[in-house]
Design a protein that fits this description.
Structural class: alpha/beta
């Protein structure tokens, strides 16, 4: 619950501190005194957008601070998710500079506005989850019925399954698009692949054929040169090898006359052996090299095919061509496998759909079970707040599966027992909507764990006994919840556990808003003024005293 609200430098508030009771807090005051300004300030610490134009003193900063007493279990999940320190007292502070910069803190730890807004949903109902304007909203109406059903785990389980179903649907659709697109290219890719498969190039084949072609086309020139070298080495009239052998023998005969001669003789012998080996290899190569016109034609054709495919696929090597062949193989095979994947996904999609339908049927039954008692309770409360002829009817019609089930839920309203029900947002007046919202809120509050409920002039358009009954409902709500209510009705003010009076005060040529907690006698006097005017009569005072006591 909200224990204390501190406001500094906001609108026409210089400095204000209000301590609230844990039950029914009523705020009254003249029109324009600044009652709604209190709620405007409170909304800032609940995550509303900040406007630097609201600063009372443009040279300073605006500070709004709320002190909440909370059950740790109520907000534990939020604090764990955002790694914040959780204490028994929760202090939320919002600061707005004259330049428009806004900062927010939870227990002195900086947080962003979305986090602040999320936290507020655990603490206060202030024109958000159950706002009068939302009464005609289908999402709000569904939330009301689901709050009464009060099976959040079932809804969460269904919602998780629905998200999985949507994910499978998206995957199936994407796979279908991929298949359709791939089918358009399949014939062409298969043609390209068949062409490469038919060519059947091995790694580096075209490069090796290029080398072979060079050899074949210069075969005669190569053989002539090799023959000449071999002839001069071994078969000439004075072969080089024979001359070298003779020179080595002559040098060896001098070995005993000079110490360096044996080494030179050995070197000549090595040269002789090396040249002999060279002559043998020249002869071997010469025997291998043959001019083959048919092979030249075959190699030329093969190279021509390779270079044509190089150009077609914009590559320069055989290995790059083989990489393309492998990629085309994967593409063609993947298209052929898509139908199998689609069939598996279609089956998974159908299974999830069947499970969702079964779960949604259970949810629908639970909603329908709550609808009739809800109607009766609301209609009873409507009579209590001065609308005896008004009727609410809940229409639940199964439709398409959605994230919350399969139901289209609509609140229908008949203000005059005409049995002509129409959507509540189209036929109910502002005053009727306010009272209807109060009746719904009083029922939903029993299921929704919101410790603080705030009503801003919920009494619009009522008076007398209807206003008294609104006060009774608020008083009953305050037994389990903290209620903060801005009102103009003395019948409601008389039910308060704490009565705050908002007034304007002139200080240093500036008009500011102040708030004070009224004593019992002050309450009686203010309620009497609400009944009969600025100078209350004795009857009004007695009536006020009776309301308070």
């Amino acid at each position: 619950m909200l224990q204390r609200l501190i406001i500094k430098n906001y609108a026409i508030i210089d400095h204000l501190e209000v301590d609230f009771s844990g039950n029914l807090n009523v705020i009254t005051g003249e029109t324009g005194a600044g009652k709604s300004i209190l709620l405007g300030a409170l909304s800032l610490i609940l995550g509303e957008r900040a406007d630097p134009g609201v600063l009372f003193d443009k040279t300073g900063k605006c500070v709004i601070e709320g002190v909440f007493k909370v059950k740790k279990s109520q907000v534990a999940v939020f604090f764990q998710q955002h790694e914040l320190d959780l204490e028994d007292l929760l202090i939320i502070r919002r600061e707005i500079s004259a330049a428009g910069k806004s900062r927010a803190f939870v227990n002195d730890t900086p947080v962003n506005i979305s986090q602040l807004s999320e936290l507020s949903s655990y603490l206060v109902d202030l024109h958000q989850q159950f706002d009068t304007l939302e009464l005609g909203n289908s999402d709000f109406q569904r939330q009301v019925i689901d709050a009464l059903v009060n099976h959040p785990a079932t809804l969460q389980q269904y919602h998780t399954m629905f998200l999985q179903y949507q994910q499978v649907q998206r995957k199936y659709k994407q796979l279908q698009d991929n298949r359709d697109h791939a089918n358009k290219e399949l014939d062409y890719n298969k043609f390209l692949l068949d062409e490469l498969l038919e060519a059947d190039f091995s790694p580096n084949e075209i490069e090796e054929l290029d080398n072979e072609l060079q050899l074949l086309t210069h075969a005669e020139e190569i053989k002539n040169t090799l023959n000449r070298i071999f002839f001069q080495l071994k078969e000439d009239e004075q072969p080089i090898l024979q001359q070298l052998k003779q020179l080595q023998s002559s040098l060896q005969s001098l070995s005993s006359f000079h110490k360096d001669v044996p080494a030179l003789s050995e070197r000549l012998l090595s040269a002789y052996v090396e040249l002999q080996d060279i002559a043998s290899e020249v002869e071997s190569i010469n025997d291998q090299v043959q001019y083959d016109a048919q092979r030249i034609e075959t190699v030329n054709d093969r190279i021509a095919l390779g270079y044509r495919l190089f150009k077609k696929h914009a590559v320069q090597t055989t290995d790059e061509l083989l990489t393309i062949k492998n990629a085309l193989t994967v593409k063609v095979e993947s298209v052929l496998n898509l139908d199998e994947e689609l069939a598996a996904l279609e089956q998974e999609q159908q299974q999830l759909h069947d499970k969702l339908l079964k779960a949604a049927t259970v949810i629908t039954a639970a909603r329908q079970e709550q609808a009739s008692p809800f109607e009766k309770k609301v209609n009873t409360l409507l009579a209590q707040v001065g609308m005896p002829n008004a009727r609410l009817k809940v229409e639940i019609v199964p439709g398409e599966l959605n994230p919350y089930g399969q139901d289209n839920i609509e609140f229908l309203f008949d203000a005059n027992k005409s049995n002509q029900f129409a959507p509540v947002g189209k036929v109910a007046s502002g005053g009727e909507l306010s009272r209807l919202m109060l009746c719904i809120k009083s029922l939903v509050a029993q299921s929704v764990a919101l410790p603080t409920l705030i009503f801003d002039e919920i009494d619009t358009g009522i008076s007398g006994e209807a206003a008294r009954q609104v006060g009774v409902i608020l008083k009953n709500l305050a037994m389990a919840h903290q209620i903060i209510c801005i009102t103009h009705q003395p019948q409601i003010a008389g039910k308060a556990d704490a009565h705050y009076f908002v007034y304007k005060d002139a200080k240093a040529d500036k008009v500011t808003t102040s708030v004070r907690l009224l004593s019992e006698e002050e309450r009686i006097n203010k309620i009497a003024q609400m009944l009969s005017g600025e100078k209350p009569t004795a009857a009004a005072l007695e009536n006020a005293r009776e309301m308070v006591r």
